[in-house]
Design goal:
mainly alpha
């Protein structure tokens, strides 16, 4: 099968998504919010870490489990 193009019928699909970002004020509100439950405070901190570093959830989860 040398010389056969395996990707001859492969079509790359790209879907454009309209992303909505947090405004500066919304981000400040998240930062300033304090939660009584320790778990919610931890989730807030993980979210902010992800937001500022650009890491996606699965990458942050990998950091937390190692």
């Amino acid at each position: 099968m040398v010389g056969k193009d395996l990707f001859k019928h492969f079509k790359l699909n790209y879907k454009k998504h309209n992303r909505i970002y947090l405004s500066e004020r919304e981000l400040e509100l998240v930062e300033e919010t304090t939660f009584k439950a320790e778990d919610y405070e931890k989730i807030k901190n993980i979210f902010l870490f992800s937001y500022f570093t650009g890491l996606i959830y699965i990458d942050v989860k990998g950091l937390l489990t190692k």
